Task: inverse folding
């Protein structure tokens, strides 16, 4: 077998035979960040300060200084983000093998259930039902949870109540199942967090973070446009910034989707 | 007992005709006046060995700068920044200098220019108290300060606007005969009463008009004046007092009242002997106050006194015979010389305008420097004719 | 009797906005003692330490005994108006456009005569109370008021020129998420503000008191995040020309000094919210405020900073917080000088621990948010520059005046 023909690949992208779907929210100051009790450390929201704009601060150029947390906006979670992954090899964004930034995706649609119940938990049964239809999830695949949550804005998106956030996510068993039985590459969600809004009360708390990162798997959060992806067949390009010992980073997440010529 | 001013005279009274606004500097006005004195006295400028200067607008110079500017080499030099009191004060200092032989010919000169903005600029920086405690209060200038004094005086002593109007109208009558007066039109009492308010109860014709001009005179020994063949006035007595009655909550009397007995005693005359009076007339209420404090009537009788006299040069109480500042104009510090220079002219028979018949003894009064709520400086002099 | 102020009409867009002019603000150094008194609403004059003479105008030698010991002391402010005048022409451009203007000579019972501005309800011969006020130039002047309060007396035009009364003014409260912000919205609404814009950051985060805040009369919630330059600029772009009084209610209270706070995350947030927040507000709203200082009855009037009294001296239990507050105080002083050019005042309200969750472990006395809000509104109505709210703030200020070093030790032990 000869080398793969990347020119053909590029040609297919250019021709639209491979569609590039942007799964990223725009980084902006008003995009919500994860909410922690106020006495704890907080994730910095995105901020932008103009350095110059064709003015006395720089006559012919426009640029900004930006600041944010590693987990601001559409972002990538590295294993070192969680205590369960703190001692793994290659667990930070700068040491993760670059090949791991490209992987296929299985898109599981629980948007109907989530619309009915903001606290909907993905179960093993949901996964097996999906596999019945689309086949077994291949090893080292991203599992992307389509909830259509990214279509909500502001208060509805965060959905904070007095007892905390209410957003859908995986139950503890399904995370273990995906990691141990399906060799999951990582979990991607549309909500703030790979875990459900109420996952602090799960056992263990935040099971997606705990199990996935404990096994060196990754997370993608605050994704958009999952409704534009086929259940199978898409390839995700998600390369975080190379931050020394970084626990994650905002990034541009792209899905390559072969166009069906029906 | 004070030593009399025997043998000391005032001569060569000079008024440089005023102008409402001038593009010339104070130096120019002062120089013209000094030259005029020198010429009138038949001297050369090198004869001048004493110089006394009063000016608000000569800055950054003072008298010393003027010596070089004018090419004078005096052996006696004075700067008298006392506004309306500067004429009398300059005179009494110069008289003593000449009397003691420190100088022979002292020219006393006051001159100020008036540029379009100079009055406003002077007001805000007039004094520290003005800056701290007057100017921020409406910036009405001396008008509002004297309005308060006038208002209080009217309330206490029953003076009316008609009384003040009478003073102003009489002065205008005098001014119509005085060639250098800036006000050339007659003033009626109705016009006075109908004028626009400036700072109640002060109305337009209660206020002097700031202008540019200069006044000067020569002080020398009587025998020297005689030798030069110039008419001269003898100096009978002077008084000077500053910050009198500081505990008066609002000013209703000036420093003259403190020193009046000594004043007439020194001259050996009484108020009845005085043939005319030149009061300092920045506002008519101050004229009335001077009539009281200089002994022509008792305190509080000023209004009645005004009502019972004509105040014109030819009348029962000749007052401000050239028209005073109210009708001639106020040329800065020269305003403090105007009455004195006019008095010298009257007693020496050199009147330019309305001559007081048979004027032998004249009283000149000065008043000035309202740095906060009252005029601080006051002075007066008695002059007599027949000096040379 | 003062004519009650009428609600100003909407501005005629064809009319030029009056450039803010200032009365002369030059004073002798000694006279600044009056400014210091006026800033806090005190009536203080020099009183000779040797002969007890009460002195005015300020001097450097006692006119009775020539003593140089002439401290400013609280003095009985009652007196009698001896004479008044209505000035109708002035050489000064500021007063020219405000003619006629009444002043008068007041004889104080304590001694000296003071030429003062006159309240419209005061007549010649009447008894009066004198107050020292800060005028548009930022310097002290004396104003004579009727001996007893009169109806609508705050509406007197000469008085309103000296105050920052919220009545018929449009107020921006920068952070409505805080208890103090909500209390202030209520207080300025009661004081007659014509609209109260209340900034809310992170609108996706619910907050306590939100329902009540929205029900306050004439409150309009606006998006404003003081930690976000873009948000502040956007808010200013929309609302700055309609803000006459800006009250910065942003707070960020965390315990601890320098050592035990790990890293700078909290310190940064603190600075972002407080120091940089203030800077952002100054840059975004300052230029318009400064340009609108003479814009009629509802001219721009004040920029209000709420500052912990520990801005004046560090309280190590809240050490890093105190340092941030000190930075804000220093910035407020700069802002005060910058806004003065437009005749707009900067009011600093200093307070001790508040009756809020972030001072939970601090024993009383504490300041209720509503008390702080009332004090701020009162200070605006009085046109003050500095106000100390509550016992702790007063206490710290008094002890600081006596011995700063002793206070530093006491707070640190
Ligand atoms: Zn003393």
Result:
């Amino acid at each position: 077998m000869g080398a793969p023909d990347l020119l053909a690949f590029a040609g297919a992208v250019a021709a639209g035979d491979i569609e590039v779907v942007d799964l990223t929210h725009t980084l902006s100051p008003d995009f919500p960040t994860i909410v922690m009790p106020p006495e704890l450390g907080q994730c910095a929201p995105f901020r932008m300060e103009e350095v110059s704009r064709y003015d006395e601060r720089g006559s012919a150029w426009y640029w900004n200084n930006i600041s944010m947390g590693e987990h601001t906006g559409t972002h990538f979670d590295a294993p070192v983000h969680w205590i369960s992954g703190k001692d793994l090899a290659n667990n930070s964004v700068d040491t993760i093998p670059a090949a791991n930034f490209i992987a296929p995706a299985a898109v599981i649609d629980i948007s109907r259930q989530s619309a009915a119940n903001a606290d909907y938990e993905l179960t093993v049964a949901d996964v097996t039902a999906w596999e019945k239809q689309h086949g077994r999830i291949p090893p080292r695949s991203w599992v992307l949870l389509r909830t259509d949550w990214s279509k909500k804005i502001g208060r509805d998106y965060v959905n904070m109540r007095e007892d905390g956030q209410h957003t859908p996510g995986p139950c503890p068993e399904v995370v273990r199942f995906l990691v141990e039985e399906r060799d999951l590459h990582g979990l991607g969600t549309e909500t703030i967090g790979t875990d459900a809004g109420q996952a602090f009360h799960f056992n263990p708390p935040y099971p997606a973070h705990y199990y996935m990162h404990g096994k060196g798997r990754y997370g993608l959060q605050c994704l958009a446009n999952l409704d534009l992806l086929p259940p199978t067949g898409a390839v995700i390009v998600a390369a975080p910034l190379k931050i020394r010992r970084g626990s994650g980073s905002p990034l541009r997440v792209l899905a390559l989707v072969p166009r069906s010529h029906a | 007992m004070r030593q009399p001013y025997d043998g000391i005279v005032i001569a060569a009274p000079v008024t440089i005709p005023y102008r409402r606004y001038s593009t010339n500097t104070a130096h120019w006005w002062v120089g013209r006046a000094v030259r005029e004195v020198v010429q009138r006295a038949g001297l050369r400028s090198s004869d001048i060995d004493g110089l006394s200067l009063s000016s608000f607008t000569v800055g950054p110079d003072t008298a010393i700068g003027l010596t070089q500017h004018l090419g004078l080499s005096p052996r006696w030099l004075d700067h008298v920044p006392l506004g309306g009191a500067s004429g009398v004060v300059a005179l009494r200092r110069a008289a003593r200098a000449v009397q003691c032989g420190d100088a022979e010919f002292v020219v006393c000169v006051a001159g100020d220019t008036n540029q379009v903005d100079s009055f406003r600029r002077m007001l805000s920086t007039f004094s520290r108290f003005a800056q701290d405690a007057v100017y921020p209060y409406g910036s009405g200038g001396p008008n509002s300060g004297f309005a308060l004094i006038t208002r209080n005086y009217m309330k206490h002593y029953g003076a009316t606007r008609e009384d003040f109007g009478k003073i102003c109208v009489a002065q205008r009558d005098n001014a119509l005969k005085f060639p250098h007066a800036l006000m050339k039109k007659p003033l009626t009492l109705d016009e006075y009463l109908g004028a626009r308010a400036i700072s109640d109860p002060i109305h337009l014709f209660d206020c002097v008009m700031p202008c540019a001009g200069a006044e000067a005179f020569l002080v020398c020994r009587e025998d020297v004046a005689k030798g030069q063949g110039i008419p001269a006035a003898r100096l009978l007595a002077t008084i000077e007092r500053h910050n009198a009655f500081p505990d008066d909550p609002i000013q209703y009397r000036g420093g003259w009242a403190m020193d009046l007995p000594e004043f007439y005693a020194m001259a050996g005359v009484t108020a009845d002997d005085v043939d005319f009076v030149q009061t300092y007339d920045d506002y008519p209420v101050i004229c009335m106050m001077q009539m009281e404090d200089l002994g022509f009537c008792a305190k509080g009788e000023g209004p009645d006194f005004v009502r019972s006299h004509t105040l014109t040069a030819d009348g029962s109480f000749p007052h401000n015979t050239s028209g005073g500042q109210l009708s001639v104009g106020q040329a800065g510090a020269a305003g403090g010389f105007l009455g004195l220079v006019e008095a010298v002219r009257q007693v020496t028979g050199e009147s330019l305008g309305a001559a007081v018949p048979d004027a032998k003894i004249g009283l000149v009064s000065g008043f000035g420097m309202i740095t906060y709520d009252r005029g601080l400086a006051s002075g007066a002099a008695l002059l007599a004719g027949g000096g040379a | 009797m003062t004519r009650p102020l009428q609600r100003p009409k909407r501005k005629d867009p064809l009319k030029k906005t009056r450039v803010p002019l200032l009365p002369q603000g030059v004073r002798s150094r000694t006279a600044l003692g009056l400014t210091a008194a006026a800033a806090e609403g005190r009536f203080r004059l020099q009183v000779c330490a040797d002969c007890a003479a009460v002195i005015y105008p300020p001097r450097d030698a006692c006119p009775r005994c020539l003593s140089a010991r002439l401290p400013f002391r609280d003095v009985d402010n009652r007196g009698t108006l001896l004479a008044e005048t209505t000035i109708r022409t002035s050489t000064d451009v500021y007063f020219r456009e405000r003619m006629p203007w009444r002043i008068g000579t007041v004889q104080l019972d304590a001694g000296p005569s003071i030429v003062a501005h006159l309240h419209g309800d005061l007549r010649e011969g009447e008894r009066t109370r004198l107050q020292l006020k800060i005028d548009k130039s930022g310097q002290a002047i004396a104003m004579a008021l009727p001996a007893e309060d009169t109806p609508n007396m705050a509406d007197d035009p000469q008085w309103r020129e000296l105050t920052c009364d919220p009545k018929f003014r449009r107020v921006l409260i920068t952070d409505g998420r805080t208890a103090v912000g909500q209390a202030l919205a209520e207080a300025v609404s009661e004081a007659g503000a014509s609209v109260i814009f209340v900034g809310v950051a992170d609108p996706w985060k619910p907050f306590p008191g939100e329902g009540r805040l929205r029900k306050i009369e004439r409150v309009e919630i606006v998006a404003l995040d003081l930690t976000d330059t873009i948000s502040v600029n956007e808010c200013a772009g929309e609302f700055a020309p309609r803000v006459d009084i800006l009250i910065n209610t942003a707070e960020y209270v965390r315990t601890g000094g320098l050592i035990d706070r790990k890293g700078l995350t909290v310190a940064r947030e603190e600075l972002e919210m407080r120091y940089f927040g203030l800077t952002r507000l100054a840059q975004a709203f300052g230029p318009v405020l400064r340009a609108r200082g003479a814009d009629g009855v509802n001219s721009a009037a004040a920029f209000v900073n709420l500052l912990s009294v520990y801005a004046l001296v560090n309280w190590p239990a809240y050490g890093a917080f105190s340092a941030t507050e000190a930075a804000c105080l220093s910035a407020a002083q700069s802002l005060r000088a910058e806004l003065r050019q437009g005749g707009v005042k900067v009011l600093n309200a200093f307070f001790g621990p508040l009756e809020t969750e972030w001072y939970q472990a601090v024993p009383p006395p504490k300041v209720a948010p509503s008390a702080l809000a009332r004090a701020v509104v009162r200070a605006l109505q009085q046109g003050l520059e500095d106000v100390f709210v509550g016992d702790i703030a007063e206490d710290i200020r008094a002890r600081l005046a006596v011995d700063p070093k002793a206070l530093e030790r006491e707070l640190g032990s």
